[in-house]
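Deviation from plan, reported transparently: protoporphyrin IX containing FE complex.
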Amino acid sequence: MDSSITPHLACPRSRPRRIADDYVPPYPAWSARIDPAIGQVVMASYGVQWRGPGDADAALAHVGALRAMLDAASGARHVDLARYVDEAGYDTLVLQPYWTDPAVFRRWEGRTDVAALLAADTGLGHFREILTPTAERLETLYSTEDEMEGLGRALERRSPPVQEHAYWGSARDRFPIAQTDALEPTGQLGFAADGAGRVTVRGHDNIAIIRSGQDWGPTGGEERRLYLAEIEPVLRAGMDFLRDRGGECGCYLNRYMRIVDLDGTPQEKSFGWSYWRSLGDMETWSEAHPSHLAIFGTFMRIVQQLNFDLKLRLWHEVYVVTSDQQLYDYRNCHPDTGFLKQMPR
Ligand code: HEM
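Because the crystal trials were delayed, the predicted structure below was used instead.
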């Protein structure tokens, strides 16, 4: 079977996989392939935060203006827009463009019109979370063959069915860098406030980030009913746990987000977006914590009930980044926004 690791990124392992070489997964899944010309990607999140319903139009207008600047000349390869209400009750829109070349991204952010909009004083809260993992520091998994999402759309190419999935520890086995590196976290978060409402956060080495998505648009009949009535409530409970008590498991922050159109209309797509102290902490939560085991168990029961014939699309992308592959800044945001929650008070 094919490995999830794109062939040019494979190397002799000093760290073995958790499976035997002849392991065959019980159901198929696919990964994005990384073109050898792509050494590093950019996943940016531009958030705008507000509380009063009267500010929603201004937030949508801001996001719409930024979206218009992500034109063909921007070089962005894929853009998502998503919305969530955070733990403090603030509504938030996040524009998430992907690039496959950090130099092209830097040129875009440096454009006069873009820089002016990103610095504009709108009276709303704004944050920027920029991740720039190198190719060996990312992995993806898609449960269906027909569509990829997020980073997969930016990378464009898909693998044949891959071997490394459907067992605990498979996410690690899909990382090229984990062939030789334990991805242990080192260092601490650092915070710098300018006294005028702006805080910059420095990430430490080997923070792990997951974007774990669900697309129930293609489902119908009994499958749709079971997704909405049985899986989604358990997923939401798990996402609430990570948001409110994730610190107990090494999760710095979690957002359960809904993909929306530019006018704010929700699509039938959601995702969990979380930042962890390490890949090890993320693995331990997924493998052993009741909140993910409940999601996993409910899903597995329903898959069997539906005779493995599912239209539901599940996907995820995970990055493990070095300190200099992360940039977080928060402007005029409430004190529990994103990484600010971790700031010593
Ligand atoms: C409806 C929602 C979800 C379902 C049905 C689900 C189910 C699953 C399944 C079936 C796997 C094994 C996949 C494979 O290797 O073939 C898995 C792995 C995993 N899930 Fe979820 N999950 C959901 C949401 C989430 C969310 C929102 C997160 C994190 C925020 C998450 C974190 C993980 C991680 C980290 C793994 C990899 C574990 C490892 O490799 O050891 N899942 N999940």
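The chain has eight helices and 14 strands. We consider this an acceptable substitute for the interim report.
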